[in-house]
Amino acid sequence: MTTEFDKLGVWQLLFDTTYAPGGAAVASEATVGWNSSFTGEPFTAEEMTEWVERTVERIRALAPPQTPRTGLRGRAPRATAP
User: Which one is predicted more confidently, 50 or 21?
Assistant: First the structure.
């Protein structure tokens, strides 16, 4: 039987191997961990840039009183800042 503690350990390992120094993350891009549900392959920087730009356009079109938190580890908030 899997305990909550076991699940936490799995998530911690995933985070550490993805975002820790020397892990898979590239400091200049916040695209690590974003994979296609069709191919399982990581999205290219160009695909992610286009996705962020289209998302920012939709957010700006709504004219929010402040920038929403999106959970993209800093990429979209920089892009949506005035």
Answer: 50
